[in-house]
Amino acid sequence: xxxxxxxxxxxxxxxxxxxxxxxxxxxxxxxxxxxxxxxxxxxxxxxxxxxxxxxxxxxxxxxxxxxxxxxxxxxxxxxxxxxxxxxxxxxxxxxxxxxxxxxxxxxxxxxxxxxxxxxxxxxxxxxxxxxxxxxxxxxxxxxxxxxxxxxxxxxxxxxxxxxxxxxxxxxxxxxxxxxxxxxxxxxxxxxxxxxxxxxxxxxxxxxxxxxxxxxxxxxxxxxxxxxxxxxxxxxxxxxxxxxxxxxxxxxxxxxxxxxxxxxxxxxxxxxxxxxxxxxxxxxxxxxxxxxxxxxxxxxxxxxxxxxxxxxxxxxxxxxxxxxxxxxxxxxxxxxxxxxxxxxxxxxxxxxxxxxxxxxxxxxxxxxxxxxxxxxxxxxxxxxxxxxxxxxxxxxxxxxxxxxxxxxxxxxxxxxxxxxxxxxxxxxxxxxxxxxxxxxxxxxx
Length: 444
Ligand code: S3P
Hints:
Elements: E1 2-4, E2 10-13, H1 19-31, E3 34-39, H2 45-56, E4 60-63, E5 74-78, E6 90-91, H3 96-106, E7 112-116, H4 127-135, E8 139-143, E9 151-157, E10 165-167, H5 173-183, E11 190-194, H6 201-208, E12 213-216, E13 228-232, E14 241-243, H7 248-260, E15 265-272, H8 279-286, E16 290-295, E17 303-309, E18 317-318, H9 330-338, E19 342-346, H10 359-369, E20 373-377, E21 380-385, E22 393-395, H11 400-412, E23 418-422, H12 434-441
Parallel strand pairs: 2-15, 3-14, 6-7, 10-11, 18-19, 22-23
Antiparallel strand pairs: 1-23, 3-5, 4-5, 7-9, 8-9, 11-13, 12-13, 15-17, 16-17, 19-21, 20-21
Helix pairs in contact: 1-2, 1-3, 1-6, 3-5, 4-5, 7-9, 7-11, 9-10, 10-11
The structure holds shikimate-3-phosphate.
């Protein structure tokens, strides 16, 4: 993919539906006896794999064809009694969320199911779910064995689960979700505790589908010793309808692009605006970005619009407790930091080493490929804002978020300079329409 710097962004943009919410809505709808309606699914491969896998479990998924229907609108005729053990392994492609949540869901059924993924997913740690799901009575095995970085292909032997009380050793909404999905098939109470807030989409979708959950504790981060906990009991969800809000992680590429490319002005939304996903907006405000938020109506799912205008940014420090709220936005925030005045320090990024690629090293390389100045020290990323970027050559290494952040860096480079980004096909996992949406904002 080639990009030339120079044009600014203008106009309104509706980004694709939120991927995290979509996975959860599809899986909960599969378990709910009756017809659920999900509108606004994103069209990337990750969510398509989750839809394929519930089909392989015997669930009927149909495209909605009413007068207001869009391509991302589906209905799901769900129910445990309709589900059966799949004939083939379930292929979760590139999606860590798909694989981990599906392992939790399958743990509740007395079947032996294999989950496979692509090369990148097969390198990602699965111990983090194999251990707690094992404590609940399921057996999750993979390459490497439990306790020594078990990897996909995973075999899930489920059934006869009992609740556990589990404190997450690392902040991970995927692990919380895997345990809660197993919890709705387990005898007794299942409780997950976390010291650092992670996204609450499982809790939100469970509420929408009428699964009783109880939440206690201060919101994590309010006090240094606060612990948030969420508990579920066994029970089936009810069918539900949902409009998936726009994905803030995809919006982030346009928000940052409009902030760092002179003369830009953009209005993006509706996007999900819960505080556990909005860390990037807080960081940009702190850096001096000219952005304002129009919050939508208060509901189970908080959403709203972001208005953004070009402005000069200052450096910032991101603390370890903020990372979960912007975990997927680090590559694009690093591009903003590279163009800011002063030295920015992003602390506590260890979890980025086990994303779709080693995103900690990859982000430093990304900034440096465009003439910036970034390096990694332990789990911290240090970016010396050089105030300008040059055209660059970068390999996204199969990581969709690195590819999209590289595009924004290429567009924000010195006017007229050309960049080449290889490995661009990675964006098909989450945002196949990214280039066309970006081109329309650039007036091309
Ligand atoms: C996700 C949680 C995050 C995030 C991922 C989606 C989710 O991962 O990076 O893109 O949907 O729960 P972790 O929970 O592993 O931090």
